[in-house]
Glucokinase (Micromonospora pattaloongensis), 1260 residues
Amino acid sequence: MTLTIGVDVGGTKVAGGVVDPDGKVLARTRRDTPAEDVAKTRDVIVDVVTELAASHPVTAVGIGAAGWIDAARSTVLFAPNIAWRDEPLRDYVSAAVELPVIVENDANVAAWAEFRYGAARHADDSMIMFTVGTGIGGGIVLGGELVRGAHGIAAELGHMLAVPSGHLCGCGRLGCIEQYASGHALVRFARAGARQEPDRATGLLALAGGDAELITGPMVTAAAQAGDPVSQHAFAQIGHWLGIGLADMVQILDPQVLVLGGGVVEAGDLLLGPTRRSYVEALAQRGRLPVAELRPAELGNTAGMVGAADLARRR
Amino acid sequence: MTLTIGVDVGGTKVAGGVVDPDGKVLARTRRDTPAEDVAKTRDVIVDVVTELAASHPVTAVGIGAAGWIDAARSTVLFAPNIAWRDEPLRDYVSAAVELPVIVENDANVAAWAEFRYGAARHADDSMIMFTVGTGIGGGIVLGGELVRGAHGIAAELGHMLAVPSGHLCGCGRLGCIEQYASGHALVRFARAGARQEPDRATGLLALAGGDAELITGPMVTAAAQAGDPVSQHAFAQIGHWLGIGLADMVQILDPQVLVLGGGVVEAGDLLLGPTRRSYVEALAQRGRLPVAELRPAELGNTAGMVGAADLARRR
Amino acid sequence: MTLTIGVDVGGTKVAGGVVDPDGKVLARTRRDTPAEDVAKTRDVIVDVVTELAASHPVTAVGIGAAGWIDAARSTVLFAPNIAWRDEPLRDYVSAAVELPVIVENDANVAAWAEFRYGAARHADDSMIMFTVGTGIGGGIVLGGELVRGAHGIAAELGHMLAVPSGHLCGCGRLGCIEQYASGHALVRFARAGARQEPDRATGLLALAGGDAELITGPMVTAAAQAGDPVSQHAFAQIGHWLGIGLADMVQILDPQVLVLGGGVVEAGDLLLGPTRRSYVEALAQRGRLPVAELRPAELGNTAGMVGAADLARRR
Amino acid sequence: MTLTIGVDVGGTKVAGGVVDPDGKVLARTRRDTPAEDVAKTRDVIVDVVTELAASHPVTAVGIGAAGWIDAARSTVLFAPNIAWRDEPLRDYVSAAVELPVIVENDANVAAWAEFRYGAARHADDSMIMFTVGTGIGGGIVLGGELVRGAHGIAAELGHMLAVPSGHLCGCGRLGCIEQYASGHALVRFARAGARQEPDRATGLLALAGGDAELITGPMVTAAAQAGDPVSQHAFAQIGHWLGIGLADMVQILDPQVLVLGGGVVEAGDLLLGPTRRSYVEALAQRGRLPVAELRPAELGNTAGMVGAADLARRR
């Protein structure tokens, strides 16, 4: 039984695990991310791998990290929350731990984990996953393989255009879907709703000490679950745009399964309901033709670790 | 040297050719399409194949047709301009001509031809093609293979959303990109421009006998090439939206090459110029990262025949 | 007691009435409109006035007609459904009937009637009316007077922009609110809905003999009242845009009252409900400041006749 | 010759002047605004009036201030940059200076000044002015009178909807025109352009020390005037939306003259050119009908003082 290590490098934590071929995590460890210190972050990754490799006979290491990774899966071209620029992460870690290493985008590894062991494990060919956290990431599997793109930068699903001349995106363009369907958008919609209609947002405002500017994503989820109408409407708004984005994926790639993952998905039917309605409406013109089933992600936080480990096994 | 037959089934013509492994058409023939008679259309296809097979030793037949084709490439589920509904075209033709047959969507076969022998022949892995005729079709090649989708209906690129609540599409939804970037849209923009600013559209209106409602696509192309500003602006308008759609393809799939084909492309730089500007602007946030080169299609009308024949060879 | 005649010139009927200062119609008559014969249409108007004037001592005549009327209220510059172009209607009728005549836009006279005798009769200063028929007309009263504009062409409320790059309007521009909030839009939304989701539109399709293309406005109203969800959604869609247009009127002119009139309003709360929700939501940022009350028109078909007569009295 | 005082209360300065019936400023004074101290701000206004009244025989005082003023022109309901809430400013100042006082919105007084003495002085009936500073204010004159609205809050032209689901406005709604056509939008467009295409924004970035986030409005104006293409494009973008907003004013109110004022207008043809093109294009469907002339404001910073004084004279 081949064991591999998966490492999920986040902006605040580096989490590693030993994963078996069934996707089971046999051991795990985690460290804080010294995000502003490039060299220390590398060494924390090496520490995590070294610790896990000491107790398990592993054959390879997979690292998942937010950012643009090159097509060879060796260099982090740019990372949004760590100070990496053209960082040759694969070779550094490989030399230090004396194991083969691959580096992969975090949304890609999560999608791969869901394809192999999670919400799309019954699919044998294709799935597309939207990972909706603060921003929106994506992962695409076609023909049983992750689509990495000619330059390693496919599946940037958050930067499809949703609204021409729409809200300014962090990327500099107006109207990317990330500005309408992400956790960031959820909070923006909820704050606007609470300012406009405070009488209908009493539950949400109570959590924020009465100040709409202090509303956070977890508050919107909690208030929505407790019945707060402004919070529920904020979920309906992002679900509307998610459904449109998912429907575009069907028009373009016609996958077997669509998966919705990321922290925002914890809201369950509060998000899935409106998303599904919008998705079905946007595809109504397909008539009675089959379209991809839409499912919530199942692996939660461990998806990154499991997906990275599995990709390392298959390198 | 294996020879195969490619048949391009259009709404007005059925064109067939014998194609060699270098993509050369060794012989060809064509018939009118009896589009409203399902049985006769089948028989015309059989006639075309039989005629060509009589003079060349062919091993297989590929048929390209507008419409939704099932994942097994055997049945036309729905065709927009022929009265086929769940038509088992592969088995009928195969039995009649005693050769293996595959059926494929017309935009897919054209894209495949450009990938193998045309504008993207230097690409070894991935390309995406927008075929801009009256409507918009698409073809996607990834990993050196045509992406057909889980249900055979991938690459319906004309039905990505461009404008929320936008112009009514023939599919029933508001705002599909086909309503902004197709030949149909070109004519609509040109007619509206000529009605609004007749003094700037004298060249175009002269071609239409003075009546904006009689403006056709070829008139817009001719007038634009002769310097008519309203016609040139109509090309700029569809180019703007095409650039946005192409940029979305980069965000989603990061291909090696993008190809723009179909009848509208005959306008050359009148269309390619604005398309390229819009494409570059929409991707400006990628900074210095490489993105797909954008090229015009090279094979023109023979793409369908050549692509269908090549897919039959590789079946 | 001064009596005047009001004449409502429509595309199919010319209806005239003798109206007293309380807005009561004391006598009325109607003729078919020979819409394609300019001279005959003039004479039908003269006939209607002559008949009414024979039995009542009237002092002036007001004529309401669709189209652009000049600032002097004498000439029809352009009419959409009658072949008038720069038609000196006032002087022709006045010479024939030997009475003072004014000509006014049909939506303006209807708005004036509602201001004086209908839904806005309690307002002493300002009201704005959207007349939603096949298209959208408007009327604006400020300072107790009809706003006619510097060139006689104010209150073309149907041609405010609703959706940039939106649906093509008959006027040649993309995205006018008339394309989203008129009776024409209602039918378009309903047909699209019935095509997309026939199972939810069985009531509506039954009225149209099963063919979505044969759906008419009265069918949508009837089906919506009987509970058909696709028809109700079509009303919700136009109500959404009407609410936005009405809210813009508050931002621009802050009137005492807003009135919604025209044939589509017969649907009652099916239209008023969604309109009011959208209106309130669009103005939520005004907080607790007062905004104009939104009311349905009260005078129905007689508004044109009554308003024209009253404007003639006040000429 | 009646003299009156006009006071322009801004967020940083209180400027007062003695104005004669020809709109000439005979004397002026200014103080800093203690914006966070409501009582002190009142007293600064009183000081300014007292100083001016000591040397000139004035008969009334007009005060222009940003914010919502009640219909009686006595109370500031809400001010965006001074801590006034339901502030009875008229009565306080009137009691202190023993003169009649009126309070009016700052964009209204500026529009009135342009109507009487500035860019629209040749108009005898109607004009509409967009004041484009950081935000967008408006003023409407119809029938020779300022349109104040039923509740004193007309002409909030910055909060007409421009883009459905567009950029979040400070008012809480998505897509107000202020988010696309104001000085704030100019800076946002310029920053985004400089981030996306730094090679084309070298002139602009040089002014900002190389950091796009430090770009300010005056920098964009200076760079645009020096030929910086990204800065010029930012002006073209806001001009596009201004033209659409101005065209909507023609559709709604058909005024004699449209005036564009506010600090952004100092860019001259860099802004007026694109604005005029967009305005003309949006109204092209009116064909050969006359539409309002579009002119830049002429009075600059003194418009507020002059307009307030003139309204006080006419109270």
User: Anything to note?
Assistant: The radius of gyration of chain B is 20 Å. Chain B has a mean pLDDT of 94.
